Amino acid sequence: MPEAEAIRLAQQGDAAAFERLYQLHNRRVYSLCLRMVGNTAEAEDLTQEAFLQLFRKVATFRGESAFSTWLHRLSVNVVLMKLRKKSGMETSLEQVTEPDEDSGGPRRDFGAPDLRLSGSIDRVNLQRAVDQLPPGYKSVFVLHDVQGYEHNEIAEIMGCSIGNSKSQLHKARMRLRELLQEVMRSKAREERKAAGSGSGVED
Amino acid sequence: MNSSMNCENFHSQLESWLEGERTSAAESHLRSCHSCQAIVQDLDAIHSAAQDWSREEVPAPSTRVWNSLKAQLESEGLIRAHGSAPAEESSSWFDRLLPSFARPAMAGAYLVALMAGGLLLSSPGSQQMADQRWMEGTRNTTSPVRTELDAAETSVASYQPSDPVVMASLHKNLGIVDNYIALCEKSMQEEPGNETVRDYLYTAYQQKADLLAEMTDHGDEGR
Question: How many domains does chain A have?
Fold first, then answer.
């Protein structure tokens, strides 16, 4: 059943049509939720909530935007609401900027030792670092760099401007750089500690 | 004569650089500055790691998700088996209103409001009777549905919000929805038979109810 037909029938309450729409979109929605929250059980709950909201509102879909864009906007909204409840922070779709936003440049002073990240980033560390990003940064980074959305699509999903999307992505990447460098420093400290305690052993 | 660029200037252009907009001054600076080279290489590494992540296959959610979803949709009366006769337009429309109120705190008030709205907006019997009922119902600017929602709004206004910033944002959205409702109600008075306007008005009431429920949540947290 093509998507357009499934939407039309779903608007009339047809069960098979609902199932078809779910089949067409569930993996992408789940993937987005999973990458945003990093937890399969939570991601499944969010996926269910996103589709529940979608199917409750499907009758109001007028086709002004692509169905998938509308669905992903709902999904991002569901995830942001969840993250907001977790962190206690206000995160509206309009409010992608952070109160303490800076120019997006590196915070460290020039001349500080550089820890190169190239070749050192594995998926686990990246997910952990992404989990520490503020919700707005996290959304734009996951949507653009991981899910592959373009800025004009992100702007429509997040309800912000294209310029805002680009700016937030840059800040997200800079913040990730800091977080990942901190991971590397911790690792280096632990290795030095381990090496130091080993050399103290007497024959 | 080459204009030299310092690191601070390069950082201010970094976002554009990563988008592919490169000036000769920036390129020249990057060739000679190891610190800025490190930043660009790190950001490229992050982007590359994200791409690797995106290529990892994400399994489909478990069947529990669809099963729970389907059960919920059936319990809300939103779906019917393919081929079965569609429900009467008024009752299926009306049934779709009920699931909007997931918050028990205000569900009663909203339910009354929407039952009133459902009676006003449903079309049992002749269209003329429905139009007349609608016209009577919306003759004054405060219709019964509007009255109930306004009463709920007054109640919510008395709450101490847990987060004034959030509440201010919600109030702003409420103002926008109220204006939209007023516009739709006016259009309904001018064209009582216009189903599109009726759908828009139904959606707007639903949005207002959702907003009020959310404001209730925030008010409950602050009490």
Answer: 2
User: Which domain covers residue A26, as residue numbers?
Assistant: 3-87
For A93, the closest chain B residue by CA position comes to: B169
Residue B193 located in a structural domain: yes
| Dist. CA A176–CA A171, nearest whole Å | 8
B176 in contact with A, Cβ within 8 Å: no
Residue A93 falls inside a structural domain:
no
CATH number at residue A179: 1.10.10.10
| Domain shared by A16 and A83, yes or no | yes
Give the pTM. 0.58
Q: Which two tokens stand for residue B58?
A: 């994400």
- CB-based contact, A24 to chain B, within 8 Å: no
Token output for A197: 């305690």
Domain shared by B102 and B163, yes or no? yes
CB-based contacts of A126, cutoff 8 Å, min separation 6: A176, A180, B46, B49, B50, B53
Whether residues B91 and B179 share a domain: the answer is yes
Is the Cβ of A1 closer than 8 Å to some Cβ of chain B? no
Comparing CA positions, the residue from B213, B110, B104, B53 lying closest to residue A81 is: B213
pLDDT by position in tens, chain B (length 223): 445 788 998 988 888 888 888 889 899 999 999 999 999 999 999 999 998 888 888 889 999 999 999 999 888 888 876 554 444 443 444 344 444 444 334 444 444 444 444 444 444 444 555 455 544 544 444 455 666 677 767 777 766 666 777 777 777 778 877 877 887 787 777 777 666 677 677 777 777 777 777 777 666 544 4
| Inter-chain residue contact A103 with B12, CB threshold 8 Å | yes
Q: Under an 8 A CB cutoff, do B47 and A55 touch?
A: no
